[in-house]
Amino acid sequence: MRVGLTGAQGVGKTTLARELARILGWRLIEEQARVVFARCPQTKGKFSSAFQWRCLAEQIRLEEDGDDFIADRTVIDNAAYWIKWRMAHSSSAENLAYYRRCQAQAAKYDLVIYVPPEIPLVADGFRSTNTEYQAEMDWLISTLMRGLVPPKRRLTVTGSMDERAARVLERIKKLASMPQASYTGWYEGPGEWADAPPRDDLQHAPRPGH
To answer: In what helix (H) or strand (E) does residue 111 lie, and over which residues does it extend?
Structure first.
């Protein structure tokens, strides 16, 4: 089962993701922005095109490395941060290529867990502690999630970490007891369902220049 956590910075995704992975014994996909930023200084900063493409590529690579994972962030987050930091500085062709890669990959999640802001922001040397920026990213991410993931494949969790984990585990248990075809499928947009997998032009949309 493919499970991803999404939401703005500092909302408790990492803590929840690690706890879920521990309980379930599933593979944990760490937040790739931190990994890429630490390993690839040649990307010239967190807001560069190269950095955003590398983050997306690593997220997809790890998600395609096998099922039964908990991902601390999703490609929905990738799309939101591209909109925030790259959309106005990139060509329409590059923007569309990035969005389509995110769209195709988002269709593969069995469950997307949205964590809204409800705890104080804490500085960790990487994330912003600007609450207005957090609110902006929360709006972008939650809006994209509603467009890319159908209601039956998304879950909002609030409360303590134990309460959040319990809700997720309950949903995973329910999904695991259902035939796969009843909870997966390609979501083409509001009110539009199809049993076919993503079209090739979406799944393999090339990055401009590649």
So the answer is: strand 111-114
DSSP state of 12: S
Residue 150: per-residue pLDDT: 96
**Among 174, 179, 183, 181, which Cα is nearest to 152's?**
183
Q: For 7-26, write each residue's pLDDT tens digit.
A: 999 999 999 999 999 999 99
| Closest C-alpha among 95, 96, 78 to residue 141 | 78
Tell me the whole-structure pTM to 2 decimals.
0.80
DSSP secondary structure, 39-93, as one string? H-GGG-STTSHHHHHHHHHHHHHHHTT-SSEEEES-HHHHHHHHHHHTGGGS-HH
CA distance 75 to 64: 12
The predicted model gives 124-131 an average pLDDT of: 73
Q: Is the pLDDT of residue 202 over 50?
A: no
**Cβ neighbours of 57 (radius 10 Å):** 15
Q: Which amino acid is at 57?
A: A
Q: What is the residue whose two structure tokens read 């990994």?
A: 35
